[in-house]
Amino acid sequence: MTDRTEPDPEDWSWLPDTYWYVPPASLPALQLDTGAGTLAWVVDQTVWHVTGYRTGYVWGVASTLLRRSGESAPPLGPDSRPLGMTMLGSITPEGRVHLTFIPSAPSASATVGLGRIIRHEGGVSFEMQMSSGSGTVTAHWAYMLQVRPDDPSWERLPGVGMSVPEMLEGCEPPEVAGGG
Asked: For the domain 18-164, what is the CATH code?
């Protein structure tokens, strides 16, 4: 295992090239079909790759895969691929987080996540709440945990059975204009 030192609470410059995922306890999410007026429990695995940070701003890519609660991991087919997104947001020195996830599909709506970075016995996690969608709206809160290539979850993410690289396949991080 790699060294998991405590980061400085006012310096988030350690975030670039980190990966985050939803652990098993945080997988349940709630979906509303606005047309039918029905609620359904879903499993929401989301993965982030933070590719940059500067003066309180963070960016990278994210991918999410939803499935109905109680179903087995979805087969890898064209309709069960993760949805890739660009991630853009801010983090205050105190660890308050505001992230926007912009889907690559132009007709899809952005997802907004609010939360904070918290410290616990196991290290650091993002405590996040989000909502997304229009015809089908999903609400989800999660403790996003850091995942590394030497962690078991790297190869088999909870809830979906895919690896981190499979979840992020095809996600291209934004480039910083002007070398900034």
From this structure: 2.40.128
